[in-house]
Design brief:
The chain is α/β, with parallel strands linked by helices. It contains 17 helices and 7 strands. It has 2 domains: about 130 residues, Rossmann fold (3-Layer(aba) Sandwich), CATH 3.40.50; about 200 residues, no CATH class.
């Protein structure tokens, strides 16, 4: 394996001629891993619109048919040109022999991307990749201060509002655990900023920090557990205390993003309790049982749908501020009703 330095990863991804036959993208920052996989696919296909040029498999499919990966790699795209096979390693079942086969006889014009969570050094797949000249491994760790600052500035450069220096410093202390979470928070910040002249440190604390955190968390946990009446009671109490509806919606969006990452780990075979215990940022002890229960009824596609509804409602509430309370109330009712139906099955 050619060792790729952290500061060279973006250049490596962008230049398809540098790509190895098999590329392993893994690490604790699943948001960054997903982002890098998408960038590799885009660079490798170079605008190829053939829908058959990209194939997505998961490791269970390969474990059920060990020869399938090599067969797919050797096949030619329907309209010619390069092809990419994206494999999600989300099972405890080993596909080491299938991976070894494509490392031994790489297929010209085919790139195989293996996407995984955090892998220990003695993991079989990681060991195979690290020993092969036909492969590269791209570890994905949480953003350091320099890369996080660069991300914040690039994501906020289109915002007309001025981001004060204290606000930028505060953002750097609150973001960085996961690239997808960071981007979602910055998207939310852009929506918040559209009618403002300046973003202050106080604004950052209200949107992303711990302002009204306890009541917002109680509202979110009630919604995600299907206790609609309790959720709406908490929400109304927050409004009477002066908590902006936007704060509650933001707390829900953060929680859904975190829940999505935890659900992915559980789908890959990790025990729910272990996932909840080690999630970052950490959960308060009093919330752990509730979140573990939520993970029993909420799964990948449903969480993505709820997150889409939430981001849509946040955007609408910023564009129609006079109706913000009503819009977020309807959002809580919609997601809470979905949770109630799911928990009654």
């Amino acid at each position: 394996m050619v060792q790729i330095k952290a500061n060279e990863i973006d250049r490596y991804i962008a230049n398809h001629k540098d790509h190895h036959a098999v590329i392993l993208v893994y690490g604790p920052d699943q948001g960054l891993a997903s982002e890098r996989v998408s960038a590799i696919v885009k660079a490798a296909l170079r605008g190829n619109a053939d829908p058959f040029a990209l194939q997505t498999l998961d490791s269970d499919e390969i474990a059920n048919d060990p020869g399938r990966l090599a067969d797919e790699a050797a096949s030619i795209a329907l309209f010619g040109g390069d092809k990419v096979i994206r494999v999600r390693l989300n099972s405890s079942r080993s596909i080491a022999k299938s991976v070894q086969a494509v490392l031994d006889t790489p297929s010209p014009g085919t790139r195989i991307i293996l996407e995984a969570g955090d892998l220990k050094k003695d993991n079989t797949i990681r060991s195979l990749i690290e020993k092969s000249r036909a492969a590269a491994a791209l570890p994905c760790f949480a953003d350091d201060r320099r890369s996080l600052r660069s991300l914040i500035l690039s994501e906020t450069e289109t915002i007309s509002a001025h981001l004060s220096a204290p606000a930028l410093d505060r953002l750097q202390t609150l973001l960085g655990e996961d690239r997808a979470t960071s981007r979602n928070e910055l998207t939310k910040l852009a929506l918040f900023a559209h009618d403002r002249a300046e973003i202050t440190e106080m604004d950052i604390d209200m949107l992303i920090g711990d302002a009204s955190a306890s009541l917002s968390n109680e509202t979110v946990d009630a919604v995600m557990s299907g206790n609609v009446r309790l959720a709406l009671d908490h929400f109304e109490r927050g409004l009477t205390m002066g908590t902006d509806a936007f704060v509650t919606a933001s707390a829900l969006q953060r929680h859904l993003t975190q829940l999505q990452l935890m659900a992915a780990e559980i789908a890959a075979g990790a025990p729910a309790r272990s996932v909840v215990d080690r999630v970052r940022p950490p959960l308060f002890f009093s919330r752990k049982a509730a979140v573990e229960a939520q993970l029993r009824i909420w799964h990948g596609a449903d969480i993505v749908k709820a997150l889409d509804y939430t981001l849509e409602a946040i955007g609408e509430s910023r564009m129609r501020p006079l109706l913000a309370d009503t819009i977020i109330h309807a959002l809580l009712l919609r997601i809470g009703a979905t949770a109630a139906r799911k928990s009654s099955r």
